[in-house]
Design goal:
Blueprint: H1 4-16, H2 20-46, H3 52-85
């Protein structure tokens, strides 16, 4: 019989992975912001050191978006695995599984 924790975990995974296109868009947004942050940090290293501070701020935002998007992508893939391997358990304990 499925426990409450398992049911909550499944619903969390299904909810996080419910919109894979949006998750991919978030990931690519984070990736683009990461490239901008690296450019600012390298520009601060080569030209003006004050450019590194906005670069670090953009880097924090970029990592947040990339992690959020990747979590959604991973949850979508994991939800597909759960759906395939999930065994339908009977409501009656004495009934044989199908």
């Amino acid at each position: 019989m499925a426990t409450t924790h398992t049911t909550k975990f499944k619903s969390l995974v299904y909810r996080l992975g419910s919109e894979p296109k949006l998750s991919l868009k978030r990931f690519f947004t984070g990736l683009g912001l990461f490239a901008i942050a690296v450019a600012l940090i390298l520009g601060g290293y080569a030209y003006q050191p004050w450019l590194q501070i906005p670069g670090l701020a953009v880097l924090a935002v970029a990592l947040f978006f990339a992690a959020w998007g990747y979590l959604g992508i991973f949850a979508n893939r994991f939800a597909q695995v759960i759906a395939v391997t999930d065994v339908h358990l009977p409501t009656d304990d004495n009934e044989l599984p199908k």
